[in-house]
Amino acid sequence: MRILVANVNTTQSMTDSIAAQARSIAAPGTEIVGITPRLGADSCEGNFESYLAAIAVMDRVVNYPEPFDAVIQAGYGEHGREGLQELLDVPVVDITEAAASTAMFLGHKYSVVTTLDRAVPLIEDRLKLAGLDARCASVRASGMAVLELEEEQERAVEAIISQALLAVREDKAEVIVLGCGGMAGLDEQIRQRAGVPVVDGVAAAVTIAESLVRMQLSTSKVRTYATPRPKTVIGWPLAVDAVRAGT
Questions:
Q1: What is the average pLDDT score of the chain?
Q2: Which of 68, 101, 177, 191 could form a disulfide with 198, with the two C-beta atoms 3.0–4.6 Å apart?
Q3: Would strands 198-200 and 175-178 be described as parallel, antiparallel, or unpaired?
Q4: 123-134 residue pLDDT tens
């Protein structure tokens, strides 16, 4: 089984970290391939960058030269999952939905701890769109920018823990979800300090993607995510043949 794990930004070191976390949880026989967009921003922290990432990830995935069995979109709250589902005939798992749905198996309510405050409304909207908001106690910002998660990891961990503890004490959360792909691999440190289950979206997405492949299940093409109708596409990087073929 080969799973593509798509970083939503152009920072290669973050792709490497995300892929390493995915490999640490993957079952024997699962090949994890980390991919980085060919265009876009070095971090995604707002709507403009998120929509840009949606195009960039679709471009990178449909132009991947080898067969693959599933795709993980490794950006928390980012746009684009729906487009990938239209284009592909393999499962597409977004870490936002994977993490939140996993958290609901572990406690009555969960809280998301993300990066900057400006990302909070985007995450709230994506959770609502996915129907996962009813059991979300809160979405809290750590105040750390995405790139600071790598550059100042110790300070980032402390900031995340601080918000996680507030979510548990003040918002009555019973599970913490890490609200950024760049937080991959920090779950154990935060779990030890927060005293509640901590869900890493990348890890959750890998296990869900593997399960869907093993069950031979993929996106329904009957209506909402039907293959795009043949059209002439002008002036963007996605291969026209891929759009026409839906592959």
A1: 91
A2: 191
A3: parallel
A4: 999 999 999 999
